[in-house]
Amino acid sequence: MKLKLITAAVAAVMAAGPALADLTFPSLSYRTGPYAANGIPFADGYADYFTLLNERDGGIGGVKTELLECETGYNTEKGVECYESTKGAGSLVYQPLSTGITYQLIPKATADGVPVHSMGYGRTSAKNGAVFHNIFNYPANYWDAASIAIKHLLDENGGDLKGKKIALVYHNSAYGKEPIRTLEELSKKHGYELRLLAVDHPGQEQKSQWLQIRRERPDYVIMWGWGVMNQVAIQEAVNIRFPMENFIGIWWSGSENDVLPAGEGADGYKSLTFHNVGKDFPLFGDIQKYVVDAGKAAGAGDQIGTVLYNRGLYAAMLAAEAAKTAQAIHGVKDITPAMMRDGMEALEMTEAKMAGLGLPGFGPEFSVSCENHGGNGFGAVVQWDAKAHKWGLITDFFQSDQDVLGPLVAEDSSAFAAENGITAGCN
Amino acid sequence: MFYRESGDFKTSYVEDNQTFPIKFDRYRYYFVLLVAFLLVPVLINDYWVNAVFMPFLIYAIAAIGLNILVGYCGQVSLGTGGFMAVGAYACYKLMTAFPEVSIFIHVLLAGGITAFVGVMFGLPSLRIKGFYLAVATLAAQFFLVWLFNRVPWFYNYSASGQISAPERTVFGVPVTGASTDAWASYMFCLVFVTISAILARNLTRGSVGRKWMAIRDMDIAAEIIGVDPLRAKLSAFAVSSFFIGVSGALFFAVYLGAVEVGEAFGITKSFLVLFMVIIGGLGSIFGSFAGAAFLVLLPVLLKNVLVGMLGWPTDLAAHLEFMIVGALIITFLIAEPHGLAQLWRVAKEKLRLWPFPH
User: Is residue A392 part of a domain?
Assistant: First the structure.
């Protein structure tokens, strides 16, 4: 019996490997578990874009793409299993959508020579490609987000935040702690007062934090939340009648799932983003025609146009563009993970390119280089309109404060290099 | 026919008292060791080590540890996750503070530190029992996780609060960090599992283990016949926490490489290890292995069958996995309330009489 089971398992592992002629993109998704509500739209968007490429263009550069989905449930142990089970299939790039799993994959993927793209999450100092050869986090990272939020507040206050009180409500984990350092540095520069309020996983219990906010009356609240924590925080903010337009969430705290439960009260809530919202783009017509109408939409097919669906779509688009770049650099259609890495490092997103893909103005323009794996740090602010059930951009894409962030990235990445015996360098 | 005592003559007390008195058992045990030490390291690849063997071996150590406390000494504990975290953070601090010392020693020291912490949290067990003790250990779980999240010294003031294992070697072979070979990390864990199992087995059948079992069965009676409850209970907490600490250190340093305390060592970890012990069988070393195998390997197997072979959507498979594992747990516990170890014992009893059952 045991032998039979082992044989079955071996056969299963073998069968999981797709035909080698395809470009394999693993999708470490989470459609179950405490963060499923956010994981599903992202995974759907990621899958639908590759389906569209296959159906409309016959793949990337004439080679079909193959999507290998693996369920992590936002659990790091399952993430390891997923990584090991998919890497043998020639996986080109990993996007785990979890800071915890990203931290684990950084050394493993670097040793295996597979690139990781943690888009807007993961380890911020991976921006320094001279140390993190295989890790990319373009177009923007957590520290950019912190700076963008503060810049937005500066704009609103005529460039002066002196004496203002800003509270950070954050998920008490690696993810939530990321912006603290940056916000502290920025508070030295701009003279605001920073209050830190940690919320423990999963974040359903936030009464005490919001009581504190009610008592101390900070002028602004910035939030670093994910999953159910966002909904609870927004509801609590509504309960204490905190002015919503003074409440800004990171891009992971700004999806429809987060604001809808609070109903009308959430009107005016702001969130950051590094890509556009809605589905008024020519590409969505193609998705309707080639994917949805053909019955090939991923999941239930009801997420199209939501914020996180667009983010998944954007991630897939950047991956596909990097694959195209890699094909052009190496003159090979069937690229390997190492070639994919080169493609990602040479990636350049321009307005003309995005317009050509049917996504005009969908994201900021940026270019990647060995020294800069993090793009240019452009982001924008969106605001929720509860009546229309729509997010809308209220600013253009603008750049974070690179003067403050540059030294922080250099410091953290050189600490990592020293700890792990990496000699930094671009060749 | 072949599984029986008769014909296997023992001429000394040492032979008579050996762990496996039946010849067939003994050879099977040697065979398993031989395969595990010589054959498996040659055959395995990254997937088998990282998804199958390593979690199985590491959880087996944790289950052995908890089994000593719950199964042998009868002290219910829900603090396993917290104690594993102590092992992991102790190992991390030692690894980064003394990089030139072998990781092997660090893991043992991490176990020792956890034993000390375990004894501290075991003190209330002298006054409180049963469910109340479970609540006290639950407090340990939450306190320890909070501590490692709150005090930056434990994670060396890193920006994110994550700890990641730098590369460390044993006899010049890297066993932690990125460039580790599959066989090296497997062998490293296997050595710890083997030593733990032999140690635990011999502790539990010696006078120490008998004292634990006396306390478990009836503490007042044990006290009357001369068992010191203070020493028995605290030694159980110390030994149990030592094994759990070792498993926590391996879990962080060798298996995951980077952990975050709330995610990796939360209350769910405590429950997971407790379920392993209950399903495997309370008061059995084999049960610890069986329970760990059941809860670690079955989900991986189901995932591979449902997604890999049948090609089902991943979310459907993940939900179904919960249902199947849950149903199997209930079925096993109804069929045999004393766990998989009891099934194994009954099978051996039947084998001994076979083919003449009367």
Answer: no
Instruction: Determine the Cα–Cα distance for residues A171 and B34; give it in Å rounded to an integer.
Output: 48
Out of A11, A174, A181, closest to residue B260 by CB = A174
CB-CB neighbors (< 8 A) of B259 in chain A: 76
**Interface confidence (ipTM) of the complex:** 0.88
Is residue A394, in this structure, part of any structural domain at all?
no
CA proximity to B41, closest of B178, B186, B189: B186
CATH code: domain of residue A172? 3.40.50.2300
Inter-chain CB pairs, A–B, below 8 Å: 126
CATH architecture of B22-353: Orthogonal Bundle (1.10)
pLDDT tens digits, residue range B305-323?
Answer: 998 888 888 889 999 988 9
Tokens matching residue A270: 């702001």
Domain count, chain A: 2
Chunked into runs of 10 residues, chain A (427 residues) has average pLDDT values of 49 46 89 89 95 93 92 90 90 91 90 92 90 92 94 93 94 88 93 93 90 94 93 94 95 93 94 93 94 91 92 95 95 93 94 94 92 92 94 93 91 85 80
State phi, psi for A63 to the nearest 5 degrees: -105, 130
Cα of B313 to nearest chain A Cα, Å: 8
Inter-chain residue contact B160 with A175, CB threshold 8 Å: yes
Q: What is the pTM of this model?
A: 0.91
Q: Tell me if B315 and A177 make a contact (CB, 8 A cut-off).
A: no
Strand partners for A381: A272
- Residues of chain B neighbouring A180 (CB-CB closer than 8 A): 159
Q: Which residues of B touch A75 (CB under 8 A)?
A: 263
Rounded Cα–Cα distance for residues B314 and B332 (Å):
26
Q: Which domain holds residue A204?
A: 142-273
Residue A398 maps to a domain: no
Nearest residue in chain B measured CA to CA from A75: B263
User: Which B residues in the span 261-280 are in contact with A, Cβ-Cβ below 8 Å?
Assistant: 262-264, 266
Rounded Cα–Cα distance for residues B237 and B122 (Å): 6
Task: Answer yes or no: do A121 and A208 share one domain.
Answer: no
pLDDT in tens, B138-167: 999 999 999 998 899 999 888 778 888 888
Q: Which amino acid belongs to residue A89?
A: A
End residue of a domain, out of A273, A293, A311? A273
Q: Is there a domain that residue A395 lies in?
A: no
